[in-house]
UniProtKB/TrEMBL annotation:
Residues 1-177 form the AAA domain. InterPro entries: AAA_dom (IPR025669), DNA_Partitioning_ATPase (IPR050678), P-loop_NTPase (IPR027417). This is ParA family protein. Pfam families: AAA_31. It comes from the Bacteria. Signal peptide: none annotated. SUPFAM superfamilies: P-loop containing nucleoside triphosphate hydrolases (SSF52540).
């Protein structure tokens, strides 16, 4: 199982939309068995697939219940080959609880809980919260590739250094962890976007994907319809862009290195 963390300390940059659509492209177009982990108390990925519950076990229990098995938490979506490990607001409490409870390892609880299911999936996508908390550290501990969606604005690059530092730190405990690259989301053909993209590429501090995800009203519409872009409007710009992004990522994976 290859695990991809979608992460950015900034909110509203397209993490959830990217996690959902990358997961769906991998399962529907590439025939891969995919697990999407919702690692955010906002539970947007979970709600997208109408799998939200305040009562069922979720990421919160993965972090706090000793001996829990992810197989008892994971839910099927209506799409074959795509399952979700759901979240709900209890993740807020669970993060605090896991931080205080030092009686057993705090950073490898997700890893331990997933042990029984890793053979069932080819890819695991993690939709992370805009934060570095215990649950995000748990995600990084099982991650192979970090993908960072970036929305171009004045503050777009804030936090990237902190995130890269965090990745470096976790690398000491998880040597498979790789900062695969940033990609632009909600791209609009205007000066700010074009200049921002050039700046990101020129500085070349971090690998940047060639593919940009274009801005389209279709994305907002999918949050109401609950269908991934491929299902809702497969010829829309962003639908085609996510297909390209996955192709670029898979090519990268085959070559086995980060892009420059
Ligand atoms: N390509 C796009 N075109 C138009 N709107 C988009 C696009 N990608 C994302 N959005 C919109 O931007 C908003 C933020 O997206 P999303 O929820 O994926 O961000 P996020 O990084 O997960 O946010 P949070 O940090 O709160 O979890 C949403 O309203 C979403 O519909
Ligand atoms: Mg989100």
């Amino acid at each position: 199982m290859t695990t991809i963390s979608i992460i950015n300390l900034k909110g509203g940059v397209g993490k959830t939309v990217s996690a959902i659509n990358i997961a769906f492209v991998l399962s529907s177009l590439h025939g891969q068995r995919v697990l999407l982990i919702d690692n955010d108390k906002q539970a947007n990925s979970t709600k997208f697939f109408s799998l939200h519950s305040d009562d069922d076990p979720s990421m919160a229990e993965i972090l706090t219940v000793k001996g829990i098995d992810a197989a008892d938490v994971i839910k099927h979506t209506q799409y074959s080959g795509l399952d979700v490990l759901p979240a709900n607001m209890s993740l807020l409490r669970a993060n605090k609880e896991a931080l205080i409870d030092t009686t057993r390892p705090q950073q490898t609880r997700l890893k331990r809980a997933l042990k029984s299911v890793t053979g069932r999936y080819d890819y695991c996508l993690i939709d992370n919260a805009p934060d570095v908390n215990i649950s995000v550290i748990n995600a990084l501990m099982i991650t192979d590739d970090v993908l960072v969606p970036v929305k171009i604005d004045k503050f777009a690059f804030d936090g990237l250094d902190v995130l890269a530092e965090q990745v470096e730190e976790v690398k000491e405990a998880n040597e498979r962890l790789n900062f695969a690259g940033c990609f632009i989301t909600m791209f609009q053909r205007n000066n700010i976007n074009t200049q921002g993209l050039e700046l990101l590429r020129r500085e070349a501090k971090y690998p940047v994907f060639q593919t940009v995800i274009r801005n389209t009203v279709k994305v907002g519409e999918t949050t109401f319809s609950g269908e991934p872009l491929q299902e809702y409007s497969k010829n829309s710009t962003a639908a085609r862009d996510y297909v390209s992004l996955v192709d670029e990522y898979l090519g990268l994976e085959k070559r086995g290195g980060a892009i420059g």
